[in-house]
Amino acid sequence: MRFGIRTIDEFELEGKTVLCRVDINQPVDRKNNTLKDITRIKASVPTIKELSDKGAKVVLLAHQGSDIEYKNFYTTQPHSVVLSQLLGREVQFIDDVCGPAAREKIRSLKNGEILLLDNVRFVSEEQTLFELKLCLTHEQQAQTQLVQKLAPLADLYVCDAFAAAHRDQPSLCGFEQVLPSAMGRLFEKEYCVISELMENPAHPCTFVLGGAKISDAFMMMETVMSKGVADTVLTGGLVANIMLAAMNEEIGSGSMEFILKSNYGEYIEKAKELYLKYPGIIKVPNDLAYVKDGKRCEAVVGNVPEDITATDIGSATAKLYSNIIKESRTVFINGPMGIFEAEETELGTKTVWNALGETEAYTVVGGGDSITATNKYGLTEKMSYICTGGGALIRFLTGEELPVVKALRHAAEKFK
Ligand code: 3PG
């Protein structure tokens, strides 16, 4: 038992059917039916391998794509191919989640065999919109089709999906109500590293917050500043644009339209409050970049053209941020500085990421896009710790008990 949660060491696994929830959500190349990145899949391998090596019949549940920020559900079939390669043993796949075909397949598994079910979010109960609109309790989640159909076939539920631990969905929080449950090795490791860092980071401690997952970013900013964890918060991406808008700076009509269209307008007020409360800690860009006629252009804040969309921090800001990173002793990074996928707007992310590679600080990278950027710039080996979670990491840093942690603790009490 660790953190009030059981670990897989406490269970006899030989011949047992184990439902194992993993987070192998990855960017997909739909044209070729392949994955553009496999970091999370690699990170999930140790738990799956251990369960299989110990003779369990392993049933993997996973989601692919989000219904909130982007509509991009996709099958988990390509993930089974990658998993088979990484494990060196077959990972079977079935294009069903909890229907008769999936259940039949689960019943037919032999000891040590591994089966990946299709995207759990193909089941409507599992979607984030469903979670947010209906707010089911964990007991109610145990009544959903997914849990009702699969739990009777299993002996144990293992959650290794730390990256989705902030989601309150049946595949993550429902099974703990009806099955003995444990966290997997990845979950345990991520929880451990992050909680230790949060409690005792080496100072100066810098948070680099970019990207477009706004609600998460704003939620944790206040906690890490008020608790004295963060000495500096460097903002980039949409987080920076919202901060600048809160300070009544021109960010370009395209940037503003994007903020309002994404329903992030309310965060402008929140940003104002935070900036006034912690003026020395939050840093905003001095210059911004945008694309005009296919070329990168930069403008100093205060002199930004009205008709642009800011898609990167400017080069002066990137340099300034890099210096701060190099002088830090701990750096948390979540979210890129701009649209780093395009050549014209990658300078900010590339410069900041290179500084992360060079700093002596303990660097913790979290979130899908941040991991993709780390891989793109060949810095994977240079980072101290790469956390598979983005939203989950940030939510964890708010100090809130994550829904999955709560559910796993409940199971530890209920099934002693
Ligand atoms: C992630 O990509 O952060 C996790 O897989 C959770 O995905 P979600 O934000 O779509 O729930």
Describe the structure concisely.
The chain contains 17 helices and 17 strands. It is an alpha/beta fold and 416 residues long. It has two domains: 197 residues, 3-Layer(aba) Sandwich (Rossmann fold); 158 residues, Phosphoglycerate kinase, N-terminal domain (Rossmann fold, 3-Layer(aba) Sandwich), CATH 3.40.50.1260.
What is the topological layout?
Elements: E1 17-21, E2 28-29, E3 34-35, H1 39-53, E4 57-61, H2 77-87, E5 91-94, H3 100-108, E6 114-117, H4 128-134, H5 138-141, H6 145-150, E7 156-159, H7 170-174, E8 181-183, H8 185-199, E9 205-209, H9 214-226, E10 232-235, H10 237-246, H11 253-261, H12 266-277, E11 282-283, E12 287-292, E13 295-300, E14 312-313, H13 315-326, E15 330-334, H14 347-358, E16 362-366, H15 368-376, E17 385-387, H16 391-397, H17 403-414
Parallel strand pairs: 1-4, 1-7, 4-6, 5-6, 7-8, 9-10, 9-15, 10-11, 15-16, 16-17
Antiparallel strand pairs: 2-3, 12-13, 12-14
Helix pairs in contact: 1-2, 9-12, 9-16, 10-12, 13-14
Bound molecules: 3-phosphoglyceric acid.
- What does the average pLDDT come to? 95
Provide the list of bound ligands, each named once: 3-phosphoglyceric acid
The residue fraction in helices comes out at: 40-55%
Cα shape: elongated
Distinct helical segment count: 17
Q: How widely separated are the two ends?
A: 11 Å
Query: Quick one: biggest sheet?
Result: 6 strands, parallel
Count the domains. 2
Strand content: 15-25%
Strand order of the largest sheet: 5-6-4-1-7-8
Classification by helices and strands: alpha/beta
**CATH-defined architecture of the largest domain:** 3-Layer(aba) Sandwich
Question: What is the radius of gyration computed over CA atoms, rounded to a whole number of angstroms?
Answer: 22 Å
Low-confidence stretches: none
What is the CATH topology assignment of the largest domain? Rossmann fold
DSSP E strands, number: 17
Can you identify the CATH superfamily of the largest domain?
A: Phosphoglycerate kinase, N-terminal domain
CATH class of the largest domain: Alpha Beta
